[in-house]
Amino acid sequence: MTPLPALAALAADMTAWRRDIHAHPELSGQESRTAKLVFDVLEGLGLKPESGIGGEGVVAVVEGRDPGPSIGLRADMDALPMNDDSNVSHASTRPGVSHACGHDGHTATLLGVARHLAANPPARGRVVLIFQPAEETGLGAVAMIKDGLFDRYPCDEVYGYHNMPLLPLGEAAVHTGPTMNGYKVWKIDIQGVGGHGAAPHKTKDPVQAAVRVASEISSIVGRHVDPMEPALITVTKLQAGSSHNVVPHEASLAGTLRATSSDVIETMWQKLQDICTGVGVMTGCTVTVRETAGVPPVFNAAAQANVAAAAAGGVFGADKVHRDLKPYPFTDDFAYMLQIAPGAYFFVGQGGTMVHQTAYDFNDDLLPNVASVFARIVEAKLS
């Protein structure tokens, strides 16, 4: 890995920011301390940040010397509702909240880019630095957009990244076209008629209904989706009952459905609704499904993917940048920004513990290197 010398010199500052944010994680929509840290750093660089966009979002602009295109760079700021078992000196000070997805590193990376660009503005155009809340809930990007993000700060192109433990440290990946799944988060509520476990014929059993729904869900991908299309539907929660001899009056299920095609997502969603209707008729229960969050697939434009790949190659080596990996099954609401402006979302390997595990910690060695990738993108587009 070969970071730009100017950004290598900022590694200690980026590490300090990252570890401060890691020690004080904040859940989606509650990133007030992180947003203030970001705002204060940007203001200290002589920039004029704006806060409160889409909730806790913060935006600042670095102006080039001459007119030209606008390039957006985005980082997410929120943490996860889980414990931190990393046993590092900067571990979370907030029980049940942890930066187990590396958004602390993403934020520190973009702060490093901001400091570099403030001292070395582009020859033309401008760079829009976007610090986004609430990625984990899938609500932050669209909230910023609805709050006028791209009306006030138009972008001709947008770029973002994620650390990727599935790739070794020192490697990167940039897809063209579908890059990550879109998804719908769903919840099913089942209302029945409870009663004695020895008299089930006098009940409308929501447990039976829940089990039938869960079983039928497994057939959606296998029987209603083209086998050449990547698709996934997962039941992650099933709750019902409180006693061994009482048929409860209600039950619930929750989960996600994911695909790289919006059409496939809609097919699965329709079939899930059909299953709920059918099971309701069969059992006599009221079965209601609703979408609690949704994000479209992440789609990289070819030209911008090539720019990101070349920039990553300048840091990691062209032979260490994967261009032909299959799309990842994960999701990121950066997809909404890519619907507004063409761009690219790239991955940087860090190996080790997978994200969303309690022992995870972002690898600080990535900070000056990924910041250098962003700086190279800016140089390529605004030199």
Automatic annotation (TrEMBL):
Annotated Pfam families: M20_dimer, Peptidase_M20
Cofactor needs: Mn(2+)
Boundaries of every Peptidase M20 dimerisation domain copy: 182-276
One of the protein's GO biological processes: diaminopimelate biosynthetic process
InterPro entries xrefs: Amidohydrolase (IPR017439), Bact_exopeptidase_dim_dom (IPR036264), Peptidase_M20 (IPR002933), Peptidase_M20_dimer (IPR011650)
EC number: 3.-.-.-
Keyword Nuclease: no
Alphabetic keyword roster: Hydrolase, Manganese, Metal-binding
Class of the enzyme per the UniProt entry, highest EC level: hydrolase
Keyword Manganese found: yes
Note on how the cofactor is bound: The Mn(2+) ion enhances activity.
GO molecular function, a single term: metal ion binding
Residue positions binding Mn(2+): C101, H103, E136, H162, H356
Protein name, as recorded: Uncharacterized hydrolase YxeP
Organism: Brevundimonas vancanneytii
